[in-house]
Design brief:
Layout (H helix, E strand, L loop, with lengths): L22 H13 L9 H18 L8 E4 L6 E7 L7 E7 L13 E6 L1 E7 L3 E5 L5 E7 L4 E9 L2 E4 L3 E3 L1
Helix pairs in contact: 1-2
Length: 174
């Protein structure tokens, strides 16, 4: 009789640890095994998403050179300005390529906002004024940026790290 059990939130380590030939896969496997001690007790979708985010964060900390995940949060417009935080959750410096896009999946917008101000993060290169930048995060992996525009318009921030592109929710100007 097989006395092994199934792990619902990670690999079955009853066979012993193993390593894939890819460091990013190994980091994710190790993070999943570590996260089992904090598995959610409910089956609620939000609890499972939170647990998956926790696993991704652990994997990114175990192997920061391969971490690609970014978190982007956009605030509501206030006084013709929209504030955005972009976070590389590795807690280290990261170099990000950022651009304003007219749509999710789109390239650089053809319309420039009134101004783009980086409050946290260092602009290494302005590729297209008020539209595309190469930016170094703070030591904690944060970029804080404010876009100003005096009319009605919608943009999205696009951010890329290691070839993966992330799009923000919309920056909506009324």
């Amino acid at each position: 009789m097989n006395l092994r059990h199934t792990e619902f939130f990670g690999p079955d380590l009853g066979r012993g640890p193993f390593s894939s030939q890819r460091v990013e896969t190994s980091a994710l496997q190790i993070a999943t095994a570590l996260a089992q001690i904090r598995a959610p007790l409910t089956r609620a979708d939000d609890d499972l998403r939170s647990h998956a985010d926790f696993i991704r964060e652990l994997a990114d900390r175990l192997c920061p050179d391969w971490a690609a995940a970014l978190r982007i949060s956009v605030d509501a417009e206030q006084y013709d300005a929209v504030h955005t935080s972009i976070i590389a959750p590795t807690g280290e410096y990261s170099l990000l390529d950022l651009w304003l896009s007219d749509s999710i999946g789109g390239g650089v917008t053809g319309t420039s906002p009134g101004s783009v101000t980086f409050n946290v993060g260092t602009v290494i290169q302005t590729i297209t004024s008020n539209r595309r930048y190469l930016v170094l995060t703070s030591a904690t992996g944060v970029i804080d940026v404010t876009v100003s525009y005096g009319s009605t318009r919608t943009w999205y921030w696009a951010a890329t790290r290691y070839g993966r592109v992330y799009y923000s929710s919309r920056l909506y100007f009324t």
